[in-house]
Amino acid sequence: MSPVGAHSTTSSSDAGAEHGPIVEVESLCVRFPVKGGFGRTKKWVHALDDVNLFVGRGETLGLVGESGSGKTTLGRAVLRRAPITSGSVHFDGQDITHLGGEQLRQLRRRMQLVFQDPYASLNPRMTILELVAEPLVVHGMVRKAEEARADVYDLLDRCGLPGDAIDRYPHAFSGGQRQRIGIARALAMRPSLIVADEPVSALDVSVRAQVVNLLQDVQSEFGLSYLFIAHDLSVVRHISQRIAIMYAGRIAEIAPSNEVYERPRHPYTKALLSAVPIPDPVVQRERRREVLIGEIPNPIDPPPGCRFQTRCPMATDLCRTENPVLEQKSPGHWAACHYSDQLV
Amino acid sequence: MSATEPVDELSATQFEEHKALEAEEAIQGRPFELSAVRGGLLGKFANDKLAFVAIGWLVMIVFVAIFASWIAPYGQSQGTLGDADKSPVWNGGSWDHIFGTTPQGYDILSRLIHGARTSLVIGIAVVLAAGLFGVVIGLISGYKGGRTDRLLMGWVDVQVSFPGLLMALLLLMVLRGSVQTVILVLAINGWMVYARMTRGVVLSMKERPFVEAAEIIGARPRRVIMTHVLPNLVSPLATLATLEFARIVLAEAALSFLGLGIQFPQTSWGTDAAQGGQFINRNPWPAIYPGLALTITVLAVNIVAAWLRVAFDPQEREKRHAATVIAGAKQL
Amino acid sequence: MTERSGPLLEVDHLRVEFFTRRGQVQAVRDVSFHIEPGETLGIVGESGSGKSVTAQALLGLIELPGKITGGDVRWRGESLVGEGCEKVLDRVRGNEIAMVFQDPMTSLNPTFTIGFQIAEVLRRHMGMSRGDAKRRVIELLDLVGIANPTQRVKQHPHEMSGGMRQRVLIAMALACEPQLLIADEPTTALDVTIQAQILELIAELQQELGLAVILITHDLGVVAGVCDRVCVMYAGRIVEQATAVELYGTPGHPYSAGLLRATPRLDEVLPRLVSIDGAPPDLLKPPAGCGFAARCPLAIDRCVSESPTITLHQHEGKDRHVACWRAFDDVLL
Q: In the 3-class helix/strand/coil scheme, how is A94-148 assigned residue by residue?
C-alpha cells in the first residue's frame, strides 16, 4: 500500500481495492496569490505542498490538522472547489484535475460535502423537503421538490429525523438535528464519496456521538467512502480506518488508526496526541505532556527544510535544511521525519 | 453556542474581502440612525409617533398624486392674469384660491397637487430603472468576480467620481427638459449605489456556507443567484430604494430649479420654487409652498426609512419587547 | 485591603431571564455557588446550559432582552446586583475581577497597538504614569509568555495569531492584579496545541499570583487538567457540584455520568461512541420536574413531576452535592 495510491504502483493488496481507490491525490500543490502593497511583487500562500494520498473504496480516511494545516483546502481540492496549482486528483479512476463546465457539474452527483456549521449551511428560507430534494431538482431528476417527497421522507427516516420534519424550516431544529438534515441532503444523490469537513466540531459533546454513529451507519448502508476532516485526534479514531496528519500544507504522517495512537512516527503527531486533554483528573495530571512552543509557520513564507522544525523538540541542522520525504516506515505506516525511528 | 471559528487557509483572502466590505460600508455610512436605538423608552415612543405622522403625510401625498386631476380645484396652468398674486386665505385671500395664486394667476394649491404627481412619477421611475440596472450589474460583478468584477466596478468608480449634477446638467442642456429626459438623466446618475450595494451583499453571501452548499450539489449560477442570493437582497434594497427615492425627488427639484428639468408652465415643486423665487419680493407664497412640500416630504421619507430599519431589525425588536415587558412588570 | 475570611464570591439563588417575543426564556434558574481565594472552579455545560449567561451576570454584563430577575451576587460581602450596584461594579470590574472571553478579537480595539491598549488600562485603573505603564506592559507580556515583548507592544491585534491575542487579553486582564479571573471558553476558538499552551499559562499564573479562577467550558477534558472543584450545569441549573476527582471518579448526577461517557478518550477505544439521546429542554417552557428527566435512563415518575434541588448526599463516606432524586441510587458509571 502506498499513499501515492494504486494508480502509480498498481499494488492491489489492500482491502476493497478491486477497482483501485475512490480518490487518489498525487503531488498536489495549491497556492493562493495574495496582494502585496503598491508595486510589491505578488506573494503566494502555500496552502498545499506536494500532497499524496488516497481514499480506498468503503474506507474512512481521517484527515487531521490544526488551522493552517491545509486540511480544509485538501478537502475542497478533492471536490474541485479549490484552485489546483499542480499535481492531480483522480476520482474513481478518472482524472478530474482539469474537468470543467457540465462535466464537473455532473461529477457533483458522485461526491458530496457535509459542512462544519449546521446553522449556516442550510438556507433558512427553505423547508427541509426543499433542502433535501434540492440536489435532485438541480440535476433534473425531479422537476419540483414536491415530486421527491417520498424519497426525502425515506432519507429523513434513515437519518433518524421525525417524519413531520419534512415541512418545517431549519430554525426549528437543534444543531445535531440540522447536521442530520445536512447528511440526508448529501445522501440524496447516492454519492460514492462524502467529504465531511469537521462535521461534529460545532456540536455539543452529548450529541456528537449521535452524528458520528449516523455517519458510520449510512456508510455501510450506502457503500460510502469518507474523507473525514478533524482538528484534533479525539473523535477520528472511532470512525477512521486510516488517519493522515497534516502540518503547514504537508502530510506529516499516514497510518492505520491504531498505529497513529500507539506508535506515532512523527513528533508533531505525538504533540497533537498529548495536547488532547483526557477527561480524568487523575490521569490528566499524571500525564507527561509535551506542550509545543510557538505556532504554525506563516504559509506565505514557510521555513526551509521540514516545516515543523521551528517547533520540533528534536530538530537538528538536517531538519533545517532538508525537507523529509514521506517514507514507509513499517507496512502501511508512512511518516515524513528524518528521525522517526527514534520515536519508537 | 460554542461553535469553533471556521478558520482555514482561505481566510487570508476572505479577510481582505471582508475588510474591503467594511470600508465600503464606512464610506457610504449608515443613513440617518434614529435616536430610538440609543434613547430611552420615552424617546422611542416619541419617535414612533413621529414615524406615524410621517407615514400619514406620505400616504396623503401618494393619494393626492394619484387622484390629482380630481382633487385639484383647477388645472395646473389654468388661470388669467386677472387672478394674479392673490394672497392665501388666512392672509386676506379668498376661499377660491386657498393657498393664493402665482404671478401668472395659477392656483398654487392645484400646482402643488400636480407637482406631487410629477415628483412621485419621476421618483418611482428613476428608482425602478436605476435599481434594476444597478442590481443586475452588481449581481454579475459580485458573483463572477475576477476580471468581470474589476471591469464593472471600474466603470462604477469612474462614473461615481464624475460629478453627478454636472453630468446631468450637460445632458439636459443637449436634451430638452421633460419628465422623460429627467428620468433618464437621473437614472444614469443613480444606478451605481445599487450596483455597489448588491455586489457587497453578493460577496458576503458567497461566503455563507449555504451558498457553497448549493454550488457543491451542482446548482448552476442562475439558480444559486435566484434562490439563494436574491432573497437576502430584498430588505437592504428596500431601505436603499426608499432613501434613494427621497434623494431623487430632491435632485429633480434641483434640476428644475436650475431651469433644466421640468419646464414652466408644466409643474414640479422645483420649477415652481424657481418661478416663485423670481418675484419673491412681491409675493413670497408661490416660492414658499413648493419648498415646504418638498422639505416635509423628503424628511418624512427619511424618517419612515429609518423607522423601518429599526422596526425590522430583529435584535432591536427583541430589545424593545423586553423593555416593555419589564416596564409593565414594574408598574404592577 | 483588609483580610476577611469567607468566600471571595458568593452567588445566591441567581435567576436570569430573557424577555423574548416568543416568551420568557429562563436561562439561569436558581444557581448558587461560591469560590474561595486561590481556588479554580470549573463551570461545565453544553450550549444553552446557562454557563456563559451566569458568567456575564456575575459582572453585571447582562443586557436587554436579558435581565437578572432574582438572587444575589456578593463580592467579598458586597452585593453586585440590584439598586446602587453600578458603583460597586465599576470599581470591581476589571480591577478586582477580570474577564477573558472566547473571541479575543472582539475585546481588542483593532486601531490601536496592543501596547497602547494595555497601558491605557494601567493608566486609567492604576493611575500609572506613561513611563511606568510602558515598563509594566513589557513585564506583563513577558509574564504571559510572549517572546520579544518590546517588539510586540508595537503590533496591532490583526498582526497576531489567535493564541497570541488570547495571551494579550490575559495580560490585560492581569494588569490590575485582580483577585478573580473569569475565563469564558478561553480556548474554544484555538487549536489544540495552542489550547494546551493557554491552559498551562493559566495554571502557572494562578500558582504564581494566587489568583482565583472561574473557568467556563463545554469540555470536560479541559476541566480535568486544571480545576479543583466543578459545577455541572444543565438547562439553567447546577445539577452537581463536586471536587474534580470525585466528579470524574463517581459522577453523582446521571447527566454528569452521560457527559463523561460521551467525551471521547484518547486512552480507550470504543467500537461505537456513546451519546445522550434527545436534546435539552426548551427553557421557554422549562419542564416542571428535572430538566434532564426526558433524556435520563434512570428517570422515575417523581423526576417528571417534581424538580430536585441540589442537596447533600453521603456517598462512600464523602459529602456530595447533587440535584437528583436518584443520586447514588444506582451504579451510574
A: EECCCCCHHHHHHHCCCEEEECCCCCCCCCCCCCHHHHHHHHHHHCCCCCCHHHH
Chain-chain contact of B223 with A138 (C-beta, under 8 angstroms): yes
What are A2-24's pLDDT values in tens digits?
455 444 443 434 444 456 899 99
CA–CA gap between residue C191 and residue B8 (Å, rounded) = 11
pLDDT of A37 > 60? The answer is no
Residue C72, C-beta contacts closer than 8 angstroms, at least 6 positions apart? C10, C11, C12, C13, C14, C79, C81, C82
Q: Judge contact between A241 and A261, C-beta under 8 A.
A: no
B150-162: pLDDT as tens digits: 999 999 999 888 8
What backbone phi and psi angles, to 5 degrees, belong to A204?
Answer: -70, 150
Domains and CATH numbers, chain B: 117-261+270-325 (1.10.3720.10)
Query: Is C163 within 8 Å of chain A by CB?
Result: yes
Contact at CB, B1 and C185, closer than 8 angstroms: no
Per the CB < 8 Å rule, is B5 touching C103? Answer: yes
Tell me whether C60 touches chain A (CB under 8 Å): no
Q: Is the pTM of this model over 0.90?
A: no
| Mean residue pLDDT across chain A | 88
CB atoms within 10 A of CB B141: 24
pLDDT of the residue at B3 = 33
Q: Residue A110 has which C-alpha cell?
A: 458522485
The backbone region for C279, taken as left when phi is positive above 0, alpha when psi lies in -120 to 50, beta otherwise, is beta
Residue C79: strand pairing partners: C74
| Spatial separation of the C-alpha atoms in residues A71 and A226, rounded to whole Å | 14
B257, B260, B261, B264: CA torsion to nearest 10: 70
A172: its cell numbers: 426549528
Minimum distance, in Å, between the CA of residue B312 and any CA atom of chain A: 17
Per the CB < 8 A criterion, the answer to whether A264 and A342 are in contact is no
- Domain A3-125+169-343 class in CATH: alpha beta
pLDDT more than 90, % of chain A: 65
Cβ contacts (< 8 Å) between C102 and chain B: which residues?
A: 2
Chain C residues with CB under 8 Å of a chain B CB are 18-21, 24, 47-48, 64-67, 102-103, 162, 185, 188-189, 218
Contacts of A189 in chain B (CB under 8 A): 217
Asked if A118 contacts A128 with a C-beta cutoff of 8 angstroms, the reply is no
Query: Over the stretch C18-30, which tens digit does the pLDDT of each residue have?
Result: 888 778 889 999 9
Alpha-carbon distance B51 to B306, whole Å? 9
Three-state SS at A162: coil
Residues of B in contact with A113 (CB under 8 A): 212-213, 216
d(CA C108, CA C93): 17
The long-range contacts involving B260-263, CB below 8 angstroms and separated by at least 24 positions, are: B260/B168, B260/B169, B260/B172, B260/B173, B260/B177, B261/B172, B261/B177, B261/B182, B262/B118, B262/B177, B262/B178, B262/B179, B262/B182, B263/B176, B263/B177, B263/B178
The residue in chain A having the minimum alpha-carbon distance to the alpha carbon of residue B218 is A105
- In order along its 332 residues, chain B shows pLDDT tens digits of 333 333 333 333 333 444 444 433 333 333 333 333 434 444 454 557 788 888 899 999 999 999 988 888 888 877 777 777 777 877 777 778 888 888 888 888 889 999 999 989 999 999 999 999 999 999 999 988 888 999 999 999 998 888 877 888 888 888 887 888 999 999 998 899 999 999 999 998 888 899 999 999 999 988 998 889 888 888 788 888 988 998 998 888 888 888 888 888 888 888 888 888 888 888 888 888 889 999 999 999 988 888 877 766 666 667 777 777 777 776 65
- Residue of C299, C286, C293 lying closest to C330 (CA atoms): C299
- Inform me whether the C-beta atom of residue C224 falls under 8 Å from chain A C-beta atoms: yes
